[in-house]
Design a protein that fits this description.
This protein has about 150 residues and is mainly alpha-helical. The protein has one domain (about 20-150). Helix content is about 30%, strand content about 5%. It contains five helices and four strands. Strands 1-2 form a two-stranded antiparallel sheet. The chain has a two-stranded antiparallel sheet with strand order 3-4. A hairpin with a 2-residue loop joins β1 (about 60) and β2 (about 65). The two termini are about 15 Å apart.
C-alpha cells in the first residue's frame, strides 16, 4: 500500500469441502475482525468500511438474508431468473453474466448450480447494498453507511 495501491478484500468459500475449519458455515468472525483492523490502520487505502465488511461476512442486510431471492446480479435475459425478477425485490436491470461464447448467459456470475448461500463475493454484495439505497434512508447512520460504501471508490 506504500506504493499508492488500494486494497479490496473478498471472502471465498471452501466449495470443495477440503478445509473443515475453513468451511464458510463456520462463519468469518476472525477474518472480519482482521479486516476491520486493517480498515482502521489504513484509512483511505482499504476499499471497504466496517459496515460493508459486516454485510458481506454475515450475509445480512437489515431484515434480509443473502441468497438468490435478494441477489441483485442476475442475468435478466436468462429464463431461469424470470420468476425471481417478478418478485418485487430490486435487481440490476442491465446485468448479464456472459459465458465464454460471448453470446449466451448463465444465471448469475457465480455459476449455474452453485448454492447462493455459499456466495460471499464482495461485488455481488456491493451491488446488494447499492441497489437497496431506500433501505438505508431510515436514519442518518443507515444513510451514512450506504454513502460510506459509495465514497470508498472515489
Amino acid at each position: 500500500m506504500e506504493n499508492g495501491n488500494k486494497v479490496l478484500f473478498n471472502y471465498y468459500s471452501d466449495l470443495s469441502g477440503k478445509g473443515q475449519a475453513l468451511d464458510y458455515r463456520n462463519g468469518f468472525a476472525e477474518v472480519q475482525e482482521a479486516i476491520d483492523r486493517m480498515i482502521e490502520l489504513y484509512p483511505g487505502r482499504i476499499l471497504m468500511t466496517p459496515y460493508f465488511n459486516q454485510v458481506v461476512s454475515s450475509g445480512r442486510l437489515f431484515d434480509e438474508q443473502w441468497g438468490y431471492e435478494v441477489c441483485t446480479n442476475l442475468s435478466t435475459n436468462h429464463p431461469v431468473n424470470a420468476e425471481r425478477l417478478k418478485s418485487g425485490k430490486p435487481y440490476n436491470p442491465h446485468f448479464r453474466a456472459y459465458n465464454a461464447d460471448f453470446q449466451s448467459t448463465r444465471r448469475c456470475c457465480t455459476g449455474v448450480h452453485r448454492d447462493c448461500a455459499s456466495c460471499f463475493d464482495t461485488w455481488e454484495h456491493f451491488s446488494w447494498v447499492m441497489i437497496n439505497m431506500r433501505k438505508h434512508l431510515g436514519s442518518k447512520e443507515d444513510f451514512a453507511n450506504w454513502l460510506g460504501r459509495c465514497i470508498c471508490f472515489m
